[in-house]
Amino acid sequence: QGQLVESGGGLVQPGGSLRLSCVASGMTSSNRIMAWYRQAPGKERELVAMITRRGGTAYGSAVKGRFTISRDNANTNTVFLQMNNLKPEDTAVYYCKWEIQYSSVVYWGLGTQVTVSS
Fold first, then answer.
1. Based on the number of CB atoms within 10 Å of its own CB, is 24 exposed (0-12), middle (13-18) or buried (19 or more)?
2. 61-100, pLDDT tens digit by residue?
3. Where in 26-91 does DSSP place strands (E)?
């Protein structure tokens, strides 16, 4: 059974940085995509960033230029989200997602809270 474990969330002041990590275990695919989503109270879950097995990336418009998704080349089932210049509106629960492209196979992590506040 696949499992995703996120870590690295916390409280940070506006303008600060955080680095989230997500480790996937128990699943593998040559066509996998890993992504970060977030959900703020009262809002829908939205895409933050994604990375394909081949290293292609894409970002949500709200975070482009401030956040960077990357992976551990020694273990491509581990991804990171470097978040710089954080704003109060970035406050949300951040979820890691693992999926096989063009299939119904999807795994979600339990999420990690990020709070940006002075």
1. buried
2. 999 999 999 998 777 789 999 999 999 999 999 999 999 8
3. 32-39, 46-52, 57-59, 67-72, 75-83
Sign of CA dihedral 41, 43, 45, 48: negative
* 2-51 pLDDT, tens digit each: 899 999 999 999 999 999 999 998 888 878 899 999 999 999 999 999 99
Token pair in block for residue 52: 């394909």
Q: Mapped to the 3 state alphabet, what secondary structure does 16-33 carry?
A: CCEEEEEEEECCCCCCEE
For tokens 């954080």, name the residue: 86
CA–CA gap between residue 116 and residue 118 (Å, rounded): 7
DSSP 8-state code for residue 39 = E
For residues 112 and 93, is the Cβ–Cβ distance under 8 A? yes
Whether residue 98 contacts residue 53, with contact meaning beta carbons closer than 8 Å, is answered with no
- Copy the structure tokens of residue 45: 């879950």
Q: How far is CA 109 from the centre of its chain?
A: 10
Q: What is the distance between the alpha carbons of residues 16 and 110, in angstroms, rounded to a whole number? A: 24
